[in-house]
Amino acid sequence: MKHLILWRHALAEYVAGKDDSLRELTDEGRIDAGCAASGLKNLVAGKSSLIVSSPKIRARDTANYLKAAVPDIELKLDEAVCDGDIKALVSKYGGSCDWLIVVGHEPDLSCWHYDLTDKRVQFLDKAGAALYEMQGGHWNFVWRKGVSELAL
């Protein structure tokens, strides 16, 4: 694998007492997920790509927008995205593709950025993404974009 995209799920509802894993995207979240997916499509369409998503509804539904935009891309759900180690996820899935897109949650994404780059950063707004490239055995941070930048 040469490229890694960390993509934060889009805006989800908050309903007191509702199981966190069952929270659904809001109307705004669905719009943002679609816009972000259209931008990510330009990066991964026609390339050896794989989406690995948290199985939580809000992440899975966000990932499905990219799956709909790029029908030949495979989508896998993995509980390890919720609390796993990014290097383990890359090791598990990276050998099968050139582009790995991981759809997850905060604060995991900020921690993973640190694990990959040794730099602390507040990650992204909902539906934002970050791109990393493997060079010389190390992950290089390329960009971090919010939904409005991805949609361009």
> CATH class, anyone?
Alpha Beta
Flag low-confidence runs.
none
CATH-defined superfamily: Phosphoglycerate mutase-like
**Percent range for β-strand residues:** 15-25%
Number of strands: 6
> So what's the overall shape?
globular
Pattern of helices and strands: EHEHEHHEHEEH
Q: State the secondary-structure class.
A: alpha/beta
The major pleated sheet works out as: 6 strands, mixed
Helix count, DSSP H or I runs of 4 or more residues: 6
Q: Give the termini distance in whole angstroms.
A: 26 Å
Structural commentary:
The protein has 152 residues and is an alpha/beta fold. The chain has a single domain, classed as Rossmann fold. It is built from 6 helices and 6 strands, in the order βαβαβααβαββα. The chain has helices spanning 27-44, 57-69, 80-83, 86-93, 108-117, 147-150; strands spanning 3-8, 49-53, 74-77, 99-104, 129-135, 138-145. A 6-stranded mixed sheet has the order 3-2-4-1-5-6, sandwiched between helices. It is globular, with a radius of gyration of 14 Å. The model has no long low-confidence stretch (mean pLDDT 94).
